[in-house]
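Hi W., the magnesium ion complex you wanted:
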Amino acid sequence: MKTYDAHHIRNIAILGHAGSGKTTLAESMLFESNEIQRRGSVEEGSTASDYHDIEQERGSSVFGTPLFAEWRDYKINIIDTPGFSDYVGEVISALRVVDTGLMVLNSHHGVEVGTETIWKYTKQFETPVIFTVNKVDHEQSDFWRTVEQAKERFGREVTVVQYPFAEGVGFNTIIDVLKMTAYVFGADGGKPEKMPIPDSERERAAQLHNELIEIVAENDESLMEHYLAKGELDEEEMRHGLTKTIIQRQIFPLFCTSAKKNMGAGRLMTFIDVVVPAPVEMPPVKTEGGTELKADPKGKTCIFVFKAASEPNVGDMSFFRVYSGTVAHGMDLVNEQTGVTERLGQLFVVNGKKRSEVSELQAGDIGAVVKLKNTHVNNTLHDKGLNLVLPAIQFPSPRVRVSVVSNRKGEEDKLGMALHHLHEEDPTLLIEHSMELKQLLLHGQGEMHVQTAKHRLINRFKLDVSFETPKVPYRETIQRMVEGSYRHKKQSGGAGQFAEVHMRVEPWYEGIAAPAGLSVRATEEHDLPWGGKLVFVNAIVGGVIEQRFLPAILKGVMEKMTEGPVTGSYVRDVRVTVFDGKMHAVDSNEAAFKTAGRMAFKDCFIKADPQLLEPIYDVEVLMPEEHVGDVMSDLPVRRAVIMGIDSDGHYQVLKARMPLAEVDKYATVLRSMTSGRAAFSASFAEYVSVPSQIQSKLHQEYLQHAQEEE
Ligand SMILES: Nc1nc2c(ncn2[C@@H]2O[C@H](COP(=O)(O)OP(=O)(O)OP(=O)(O)O)[C@@H](O)[C@H]2O)c(=O)[nH]1
Ligand SMILES: [Mg+2]
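Structure:
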């Protein structure tokens, strides 16, 4: 393959709600450009993009797949992204390295919740966007309603370049108001015949043509003058104006396609070649230090790794974009983050699992290299002597958790390594060894996301694992003051053990007064690693317990605080005042005082109206109006409290507070309640009291479990 320069490269991410036809459209592009000889289908699991077994089983994309199409004199790098919100990480990493987004709308469903979520990311990345309304051959296709919704949601900048003539089952004609031509397709799609616009459509096409010109001219004074003088812009003027306007997000040109019937992909690619910004036309990327990198093939080499993949047949690969200079096989580049010099092996351009070796890749291009040993997603590599870091991809925080259990003894280490591997490939999967819950937790974006991880653990890593509901990190505290004591005495054989501790245990809160009626000698405030405080007060009078034993008492209290008496959870927000006790000249030692401290604390705690606290999350649900009723009436079942509801265009945003135990299940619940048309996010808010009947149920379970263990 020839080497493309930054004027002849286009980098596109295909974006859109699940099932809008992204993968089918990518397939049509590859087929039209002769990259593939046979046009596969999602149904048969034969597309170039969805080549993973899990994608074929499900009939939908799971991974962002790098592809490319050579169209005319240009190389269009395409990343086909998955539409399900669980895989949003793939969308974000794609947006990080492409120049333009191609947003696919489903002409049958209009603007969907996935479109909205992804739109927000394109705004954040300031990515230029072009739209295509796909499935215009669908019997329930409604192109104009879809356009209206897009304008309403994304602004008047959404501008029609093409529309279907007679959409629906017999669809075969696209009216192009930029070219002022009708494209008429044969039964198999492909290359259309160019025809004059039918008489009945002339007026509408002319009006849309003018709208298009005006929005372009509006952004450029000299073009405007020209337009006013001539009443028209020629193709070249229009091209320049359009590119500039697209880069500034002042226009979102809108096309139409039937990916399934192979109609429209060619014209779309020509537009991408000719009008969509080249890497050199985009504003230079800035490194963290503020250096601007231009897509100059002769500049110093700098690449950014945005994806890692490991596949049994294809091997381990690192995917990167060249931001400056030229990379070649055998080159040495320094990884800024790990400090390691890496020698680049063979370089590839890839179309799904098919890879072709290339000798070099210039600035602006996207390619892959056999996995570099000490290089990970988000790393910057560059020529020696430079000091550059490109901003890392910021992945969203996780929304669901599961506990991963190995069903085969002795495979724990292997499981740990496999999970680490999954995280390397997909940084939105987080692994946590929870000391508190004594569980291995996997955090992800949704039920499907963690199920995908499970599928890979079983099939790719040949592990036998189960996913279980994770425990809830409850907290225990108390509601009233109690005084108590404990005498620890042991007389067996030689030296005995003796310690007696009297303490006052009470709820701690900000601004609490000093313990009443006691003479305080010292107060220690401990911020607990799991949140909240322990305040430990020494109010010993007359040296009844020697100073040197107080740390041992504190240790005993702390020990019990990591396994509270109600459910074995962490204890927080208590004040413990030691005010009396007894020692024995020979038998008292630290171990004895630790035990006495622990037991005295436990006894007091149980009597002090213990209160279990549970983590509550702020939950935000974005959904179409018609689902609001169902979603709202389901919330009380989940012990959630509605905080408010707002409308955002034709979507509703519901805010609620929900216990974590329910958040864990919510992704699945919401999906089935709204057929995947709602999105939600959750973030930790605070700890609040658990209702008493639930607390006593959990306490009984804990006691029973503790007995079984004994
Ligand atoms: N009628 C019709 N169906 C289409 C068209 N494009 C795609 N489809 C069908 O729509 C379904 C989803 O297509 P995909 O290409 O997998 O959609 P996607 O956007 O890649 O979906 P995700 O990867 O899950 O986000 C498949 O059954 C396709 O055959 C089209 O233009 N017309
Ligand atoms: Mg897909």
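The chain has 16 helices and 38 strands.

W.
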